[in-house]
Amino acid sequence: MRIRLGWKLGLTYLALIALAMTFFGYFTMRFFEQSFIDERKSALFTHASILANNSAPFLRNGNDDAYLHSLARDYGERAGNRFLILDRSARVAADSAKEFTGRVLEFTEIKEALQGRSSGQPHYEPKYGWVLYAAVPVSSGKKVIGAVFVADDINSISKRLSEIRNRLFWFSLVSGIIAFIISLFFGRFLTKPVSSLISAARQIEKGDYGFQVEGTGRNDEIGELTRVFNEMSSKIKLEDNVRKQFVADASHELKTPVASLKALLDSWPAYRKKSDDASELIDDLKHETDRLSRLIEDLLVLSRVENNKNYLKLEEVSVGEMIAAVKKSIIPLAEKKGLVVDISTSDDIYWVLDGEKIFRAILNIAENAVKYSPPSGHILLGYGIEQGKLFISVTDTGPGIPEDEIPRIFDRFYRVDKARSRVTGGWGLGLAITKEIVELHGGTISVESKPMIKTVFKLEIPKI
Ligand SMILES: Nc1ncnc2c1ncn2[C@@H]1O[C@H](COP(=O)(O)OP(=O)(O)OP(=O)(O)O)[C@@H](O)[C@H]1O
Ligand SMILES: [Mg+2]
Fold first, then answer.
1. Cβ atoms of residues 5 and 80 within 8 Å
2. Which ligand is nearest to the CA of 433?
3. 19 C-beta neighbours (distance < 10 Å), count
4. For a pocket test of ligand 1, which of 417, 431, 434 has the largest count of ligand atoms closer than 8 A to its C-beta?
5. Are 150 and 48 within 8 A, CB to CB?
6. In terms of CATH architecture, what is 5-160?
7. I need a surface site. Which of 3, 222, 243, 452 has the fewest CB within 10 A?
8. Within the chain, which residue ranges are assigned CATH 1.10.287.130?
9. Using CA atoms, how far apart are residues 130 and 36, in angstroms rounded to an integer?
10. For residue 237, what are the contacts with CB-CB under 8 A and spacing of at least 6?
């Protein structure tokens, strides 16, 4: 079961207040009890001590019980308490209420007093309720010759104490409930945006990408979370659109070569009637199948490379050797077109990167340079280190790319001149692959183009 945040908050406050009030209540009650009783006790001690002083001569001179009794009775009447005078053996010589005369009493207070110490303690007596007993020694010189015992009714004190206890209890209960209610509201205030985030997340889960939540203006962590959430939602929508577009484009592009293959095959019966030699048809079939398999291969590379850093096999690579290999790959076609290919640097550089993929990325650019340059142009491959980054550049003297098309040439299936590209056989995937690979390395790629003068593709790769 999910317990709402507001309830959790409320119950926590309730428990905290209960705990605090229990401690507070306990110590306050102890304090009141102590101070009330101490006050009473010291009054009792004063009375008892006076009686002890007055009764000392009579206890000393053989027990004059009758006189002691009248003393106890007088004191009892004056102070409103019950006084007992006991001799050294704890026998009651006089009792202002007469009840215990002659008996030996064993109260702790009396025992203490007979050992020379005054003491007092509250007791609960079923007959009287709460009573306070106190006893002081009666001394003659340094000798203890008896004790004065006094009992006081303290039911009024215990009544006052229980009143205080009640008030404390109700006060705690009410403040606990108020705190609980406040935290319920506060919890709701706190969790409302979280609830709308939850329902927005569910909305996205259902496929409503791009769903936005209100409340981005809040100046706290929840506001921040909402902003991040909305950005994430928009990004998912964008990614989803790119993916959908890609699938649509890929299927569309696949349709063309498959249709040509089918047309070629359909032409076979008519073809056979004209000649026995099928080699021309087979060449055409082979050409189309090659194109198709290149497309599929490119699509596979793209889907594998895309956003998958784990896919990189990093190692220290000789950039000089890599560029030489690129030159070697494009030379046959370039020479056929009468293009000159040069490498601008001779100092080698070693750099940590995925050699195979970066080779592929540069080859895509270099192939474009060959493909799109008119005959007798010049292609320059360069590399070096600039501001701590490795750069590799490919410069050609071809027709270049119009300024406003530059941002789009890295899109999948994008070709500047569809008709021209169709002839040269491109799919518009080369630069998309290059860009993915370079970005996986944390690098960037830029283009500068002056038609027929110089078009430069430059990639930069930071140290990994
Ligand atoms: N050096 C260049 N000079 C002129 N135009 C270029 C150059 N490089 C790229 N382009 C333009 O950018 C487009 C995209 O290039 P990209 O390499 O992605 O695709 P492609 O070469 O058409 O096909 P593919 O590389 O998949 O075979 C090209 O169709 C072309 O119009
Ligand atoms: Mg290309």
1. no
2. 1
3. 10
4. 431
5. yes
6. 2-Layer Sandwich (3.30)
7. 3
8. 239-303
9. 13
10. 209, 210
**Predicted pLDDT at 420:** 57
Q: Identify which of 372, 397, 438 to mutate to test ligand 1's pocket (most ligand atoms within 8 A of the CB).
A: 372
Q: What is the pLDDT of residue 274?
A: 83
Number of the ligand 1 atom closest to the C-alpha atom of 373: 3
H/E segment holding residue 381: strand 378-386
Of 309 and 96, the structure prediction assigns the larger pLDDT to 96
The chain-wide mean pLDDT, for the chain, equals: 89
Amino acid at 25: G
Ligand 1 atom closest to the Cα of residue 457 is 1
DSSP-derived secondary structure letter, 330 = H
- In short, whether 372's Cβ falls inside 6 Å of ligand 1 is yes
What would the two tokens of residue 197 be?
């985030």
CATH tag for 309-461 (out of 3.20.20.70, 3.40.50.1260, 3.30.565.10, 3.30.365.10): 3.30.565.10
Q: Tell me the CA–centroid distance for residue 431 and ligand 2, in Å.
A: 6
Which residue CA neighbors atom 31 of ligand 1 most closely?
416
Q: Provide long-range contacts, Cβ within 8 A and 24+ apart, for 254-260.
A: 254/292, 254/295, 257/288, 257/291, 257/292, 257/295, 258/292, 260/288
Q: Which two tokens stand for residue 112?
A: 């203490």
- Measured CA distances, 387 to 3, 219, 319, 320, 390 (Å): 56, 39, 17, 19, 8
* pLDDT value at 456 more than 90: yes
Residue nearest to atom 9 of ligand 1 (CA): 368
Measured in Å, residue 259 CA sits from the centre of ligand 1 at: 24
Residues of the chain with CATH 3.30.565.10: 309-461
Burial 374-396 (b: 16+ CB within 10 A, else e): eeebbbbbbbeeeeebbbbbbbb
Ligand 1 mean position, distance from CA 416 (Å)? 7
410 lines ligand 1 (CB under 6 A): no
* pTM exceeds cut of 0.90: no
Q: How far is the CA of 409 from the centre of ligand 2 (A)?
A: 10
pLDDT of residue 9: 81
Q: CA 243 to CA 307: how far, in whole Å?
A: 13
Composition of the chain by helix, strand, coil, percent to 5: 60, 20, 25
Separation of CA 312 and ligand 2 centre (Å): 22
Band of pLDDT at residue 372, cut at 50, 70 and 90? very high
Whether the Cβ atoms of residue 452 and residue 402 lie closer than 8 Å to each other: no
- Number of the ligand 1 atom closest to the C-alpha atom of 416: 31
- Whether the CB of 113 sits within 6 Å of ligand 1: no
The CB of 431 under 6 Å from ligand 1? The reply is yes
